[in-house]
Amino acid sequence: MKNYILPAVKLTFVMAVLVGIYLMFVYAGSKVLPTGGNAEIITYKGQKFYRNIGQEFKSPKYFHGRPSSVNYKADGSGASNKGPSNKEYLDIVQKRLNTLKMENPGMENTKVPVELITASGSGLDPDISPEGALYQVKRIAKVRNLSEEEVKNLVTQNTTPPVLHLLGPAKVNVLELNVALDKLSTHQ
């Protein structure tokens, strides 16, 4: 028995040290980030919103983000775990597609960006592609009495390019875009 306990205690000690070093490395690394490892908060009209957590926008006068499998609750982050051949999942996606096309008249024959009808792995993705935002321009311009060109320019201004213009896709933060949209509408 002594032959098993001593190695187990040593291994536990070594692992505690290694994990502790790893955690210190991750913590120190997070402090180098622009946000210091903290949440990115946007204050708008006296309310605080988390920029890096998806928000739900239902009104036709706003851009809509990715659907959420966890109803946009950060404490329940996760995917639906239903595969692309699951009948229930396919029904959900088809329902989202039908709703999206109904909400965006005039776009029935336009290719639908996949992020507008599928949830992300976390269910909290705050960003969509520029194509996902442009798909919604016609609806928003009509509801807000703006020209489509003004709304397209707003999408372009709020598009973040890939890191170093090489890594990852271009993206648009839906919350920031909607805040900018409200500001544009009030200046009209």
From TrEMBL:
It holds the Pfam family KdpC. Signal peptide: none annotated. GO terms for cellular component: plasma membrane. Its main location: membrane. Keywords: ATP-binding, Cell membrane, Ion transport, Membrane, Nucleotide-binding, Potassium, Potassium transport, Transmembrane, Transmembrane helix, Transport. It is a single-pass membrane protein. One of its GO terms (molecular function) is ATP binding. It is found in: Cell membrane. The chain crosses the membrane at residues 12-30. InterPro entries: KdpC. Part of the high-affinity ATP-driven potassium transport (or Kdp) system, which catalyzes the hydrolysis of ATP coupled with the electrogenic transport of potassium into the cytoplasm. This subunit acts as a catalytic chaperone that increases the ATP-binding affinity of the ATP-hydrolyzing subunit KdpB by the formation of a transient KdpB/KdpC/ATP ternary complex. The system is composed of three essential subunits: KdpA, KdpB and KdpC. HAMAP family: KdpC (MF_00276). Belongs to the KdpC family. This is Potassium-transporting ATPase KdpC subunit. The gene is kdpC.
